[in-house]
């Protein structure tokens, strides 16, 4: 059951891992506005930042699975061939290798292809195809 009660708090996982087009910020680089409290430009942050909500923020996963703690961001993206499907973006080094994340990938691939994005590139599981296309913060191919 989705909840609307969660807040990002000090998590800046998406700020560090995703492309922010308005700031010309590539994937897997810190945003210059990241600070201890989150964002030092919160009131004037770009639309991409305002619009993005990871699945944890929307009440999915466990309370302790906030992306900066879990090591990955769970979200969705769209592919012309398979439609909307899960996207997992690495937020901490080797985050996708953690057993809990590998278990989740295994479960999710029973229903749909899963795109896993790391600094090394993107990989579809099961291996439907390989891609190194960076994604924007809303999950669409750049
Ligand atoms: S990854 Fe999720 S919880 Fe973390 S800052 Fe982004 S939207 Fe918020
Ligand atoms: S502007 Fe703020 S909300 Fe947007 S990516 Fe940078 S730190 Fe995050």
Automatic annotation (TrEMBL):
Location of the region described as Disordered in the Swiss-Prot/TrEMBL record: 119-142
Designated name of the protein:
Uncharacterized protein
Q: Which organism is it from?
A: Algisphaera agarilytica
């Amino acid at each position: 059951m989705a909840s609307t009660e969660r807040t990002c708090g000090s998590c800046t996982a998406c700020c560090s891992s995703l492309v922010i087009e308005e700031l010309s910020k590539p994937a897997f680089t810190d945003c210059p506005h990241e600070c201890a409290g989150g964002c030092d430009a919160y009131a004037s942050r770009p639309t991409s930042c305002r619009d993005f909500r990871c699945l944890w923020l929307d009440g999915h996963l466990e309370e302790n699975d906030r992306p900066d703690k879990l090591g990955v961001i769970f979200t969705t993206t769209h592919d012309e061939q398979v439609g909307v499907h899960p996207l997992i973006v690495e937020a901490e080094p080797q985050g996708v290798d953690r057993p809990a994340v590998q278990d989740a990938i295994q479960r999710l691939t029973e229903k749909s292809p899963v795109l896993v994005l790391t600094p090394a590139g993107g990989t579809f599981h099961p291996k439907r195809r390989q891609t190194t296309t960076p994604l924007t913060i809303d999950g669409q191919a750049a």
